[in-house]
Amino acid sequence: MRKLVFIALLFTATAVAADQSFTLQECIQFAIKNNPDLRIQNKVVLSKAADVTSSYGNILPNLSFGSAYNRISQAASPKIIQGAVVPQPAGISNNFGAGFSYTQNIYDGGRWRNEIKLAKTNYQSAIYDKNSNRLSLIVTVTEKFYNVLKAQELLKVDQKSLENSQEQLKKTEEMHRIGQVAKKDLYKAQVKQGTERLKVIQQEAELKLALADLKAVLGIRGEEVIDVYESAYQKPVQIDAAIAYQKALEANSDYASLQTQRQSAQIQCKIAKSAWYPNLSSSYSYSRSSSKFSDLYSNFDSRWSSSLRLDISFSLFNGFDRKTKIQQAKLAYQIDDDMIEKKEIEIRNTIQNLVLTLDTYRDMIDINELTIASAEEDLRLAQEMYRLSSATLLEVLDAQVALTKAQSDLISTKYDAKIAEARLSLVMGTLGENQ
């Protein structure tokens, strides 16, 4: 039995420790599924949907049914009638009753209609808020994902640079052994190799931190090992700022949420104004009573009573409550107008900055690719000239540094561009269309 338990635990530990490779889309789906904030937001949307159903209760009729039983026990006691004492025997009396009532709101100044509109608007606002949280999560996952890819690629560059420095050190040692170069070149090669080793160690730590950040966003706990990959890098496309701004006004979740918030304030103003109108309602009730239970459901032409009522009421004065609520609703509506105007300015500025940033990144990618080609050729020539004693080791090391920097710059630019592209898609409202 203990052997079986041990095998089961070993299998579980192995399964947890197994590597998992994720694409960007898989990371996004995984995060959406496991994010607690989105689960909470889903419940908020369901609650707002229930409020819509509940709001119809102000116009729908109210129908109720009731029944009652009353038993009275009385002890024997004398009773004086016209000066004479008349004995009263003990007795028990029963009374059964049943009936129903119906009430209907006829007119309340449009309050019920606007409360239904308000519930629907709040429900739509909850959907926008949920979508906004989902898109923010997608952007965060995208940033963490590309930070991991960037750290992986930079680590490869540093490892390659370390390999080159180790090869150069071997060549320098051999050239020093035969007396072709001075000892100072050997020291320089050793220092270069140590520096590159330190860069690899530092970049490995950066990769671990980037993976930890991604695991936290995905909701992965413990020491589970994950890996990410991208089948092919797609260079960000050029986007016109004016078109992007127009799309943002049509699809940006935060902007749409502010618009529904303004609609809610406008409806609340109408609800507040309904207090200036009279309320009209009607009610009808029917009841039966008898000392015998069986009589409640027979002889329907007797032992019954009914009531039909029409009520109209109007508040003459309520301590300035109506006026104050209307003023507050108007101010809320005006505040929402200002917030929408502020949001439009914010969206325009953000789009302009991100479009300019992406244009710069695209140019930098093209330039860095040319720089890498040039640096590779410079390094090849420097190594060949050093082998022929026509160049110094410092020139070779400088060429290696230039190549490593060009490669690192290209990697950083490529993945920073993808992050900026995701942020622009978030503002435009086009992010997550396929998620």
Description:
This protein is α+β, with helices and mostly antiparallel strands. The chain is 66% helix and 16% strand. A hairpin with a 2-residue loop joins strand 3 and strand 4 (84-88). The longest helix is centred in the first third of the chain and has 67 residues, at 111-177. The two termini are 47 Å apart. The model is unreliable at 1-18 (pLDDT under 50).
Brief write-up:
With 435 residues, the chain is of the alpha+beta class. The chain has helices at 2-17, 24-34, 36-55, 111-177, 183-218, 241-251, 253-273, 321-387, 393-428, and strands at residues 20-22, 62-74, 77-81, 84-88, 91-107, 226-228, 279-290, 304-313. Strands 2-5-7-8 form a 4-stranded antiparallel beta sheet, with no helix packed on it.
Architecture blueprint of SSEs:
Layout: H1 2-17, E1 20-22, H2 24-34, H3 36-55, E2 62-74, E3 77-81, E4 84-88, E5 91-107, H4 111-177, H5 183-218, E6 226-228, H6 241-251, H7 253-273, E7 279-290, E8 304-313, H8 321-387, H9 393-428
Parallel strand pairs: 1-6
Antiparallel strand pairs: 2-5, 3-4, 5-7, 7-8
Helix pairs in contact: 2-4, 3-4, 4-5, 4-7, 4-9, 6-8, 7-8, 8-9
Number of strands: 8
- Indicate the CATH architecture: Up-down Bundle
Helical/strand content category? alpha+beta
Helix fraction by DSSP (H/I, runs of at least 4): 55-70%
Tell me, briefly, the overall form: elongated
What percent strand?
Answer: 15-25%
Unreliable stretches, pLDDT < 50, 5 or more residues? 1-18
Mean pLDDT across residues: 87
**Spatial sequence of strands, sheet with the most strands:** 2-5-7-8
How many strands, what sense, and barrel or not for the largest sheet? Answer: 4 strands, antiparallel
CATH homologous superfamily heading:
Outer membrane efflux proteins (OEP)
